[in-house]
Amino acid sequence: MSAGPLNEIFVLGVVRVIDRKLLSSYSSSSFHPSLLVSLAAAYPAFEANLRQTKECSDSNFHFLVDDGGLLYACLSAKSYPSRLIFTLLEEIQENFAAHHTREQIDKAEEGGSKENGQFSKQDKCWLQGLAKKYREAACVDKLQSIQKKVDATCGTMQDSIATLLESDDTLESLTNATESLSHQAKAFHRRTSALRSRVQWDAIRWRIAVLLVFALALSIVLFPIILAARKPRDPILPLDSAPSSAALAPGMGEGVEPPLPAE
Fold first, then answer.
1. pLDDT, tens digit, for every residue of 211-229?
2. Cα–Cα distance measured from residue 225 to residue 246, given in angstroms and rounded to the nearest whole number
3. Which residue spans traverse the membrane (predicted)?
């Protein structure tokens, strides 16, 4: 069988490894989903995290195995790049884990459509979407290239925003530091002004005290001299004007006989 030029993905599916049971599938070609089970049965055992590509007659069988015992498989055109297939299988793995719990997977039986898998109806929408998304490798490459450019641009923008935020944080830190230094400078200026005023007043008080001590000492020295200078002195009389004894002793001759002359 051959694939059309616009459809290089034939079958997608999820197989439980332990019993080779098809759990979910989607086919966009004449290939039947049960072919995935037949191809998986050719392997006696699967290791966890194994990914491999097997060439068939008119297609390639790709699969990867997770550590939970599930095999995600794809049947594609031979020309389809394996790297894109495994990207597709990783998306299938993510979607299947998001839509089904471990308990549902372990208890799954071949109900509903036995050939297509129990969860095929539930998963048809997103499986079909992935099949359309990866239908052409060339388109996928272009999309991935654009996506990489978009991711790179987003990464650059995020880095720029992060740098801007860091710069803003740095600027804010500098602003806070400047304000803190300004407050400290003002406080220091107030303290130095108060200290300078106190030193000046101390100097003035010391000068006043020295002047008072000096004035007190000077007054102690000069006061006796001034008193002595202001005390009145007795007048000095001449000898001829000396007062007589009667004048010096008034009343001495009254009632006293004068002395007799000598014989």
1. 999 888 888 888 888 888 8
2. 40
3. 206-229
